[in-house]
Amino acid sequence: MEKIKSSKLNETLEAVAWGVLLVWWGVTEMFNFLPAGTGAIGVGLILLGLNAARSLKGIPIRMWSTMLGILALVWGGVDLVGSLLRPSFEMPTFAILLVVLGVMLIGRELIRNRTE
Fold first, then answer.
1. Cα(19)–Cα(35) distance, rounded to whole angstroms?
2. Per-residue pLDDT reduced to its tens digit, 42-99
3. Would residue 85 be called left, alpha or beta, if left means φ above 0 and alpha means ψ between -120 and 50 degrees?
4. Can you tell me the distance from the alpha carbon of 20 to that of 38, in angstroms, rounded to the nearest whole number?
5. Quick one: how far is CA 83 from the chain centroid?
6. Domain parsing of the chain, residue ranges
7. What are phi and psi of 51, to 5 degrees?
8. Can you tell me whether residue 91 is helix, strand or coil?
9. How far is CA 71 from CA 44, 94, 108, 115, in A?
10. Spatial distance between the Cα atoms of 69 and 54, rounded to a whole number of angstroms
11. Would residue 91 be called left, alpha or beta, if left means φ above 0 and alpha means ψ between -120 and 50 degrees?
């Protein structure tokens, strides 16, 4: 019975997160004056917030959406810094995302191997 209740709660959390994500996407499309990167930062916060809510309710987090949330935050942060500070060099956003993703995958495996 508890597993069914947990599954239903997870479905509700996912539906709410999708709704918030779509609203946020619409807002960032309507208001072009928002700085570059704010859309991706919002998506990252929504995905990480979904997993935080799961964790608080005793539902296992989803590693994939957590990793996507972190990547979105990094992507948005790099774009935001680039648009606000206007550095004299090109920000290698894609390369930074690849490095972050690689570090997260390696870290996940190291943590997984320690717990076994």
1. 23
2. 999 999 999 999 999 989 888 889 989 998 998 899 888 887 777 776 767 778 878 8
3. alpha
4. 15
5. 20
6. 2-115
7. -70, -30
8. coil
9. 7, 10, 15, 25
10. 14
11. beta
Give pTM, 2 decimals: 0.76
User: Residue type at 76?
Assistant: G
Hey, what are 14's tokens?
Answer: 């996912």
Give the per-residue pLDDT at 93: 72
Output phi, psi for 25, to 5 deg. -60, -45
Report d(CA 99, CA 19) in Å as an integer.
30
Amino acid identity of residue 73, one-letter, is L
72, two tokens: 């979105």
Task: Please identify which residue in the block is written with the tokens 């990547």.
Answer: 71
Q: What's the rounded Cα separation, in Å, for the pair 46 and 15?
A: 12
Cβ proximity of 50 and 2 under 8 Å: no
Cα(106)–Cα(70) distance, integer angstroms: 15
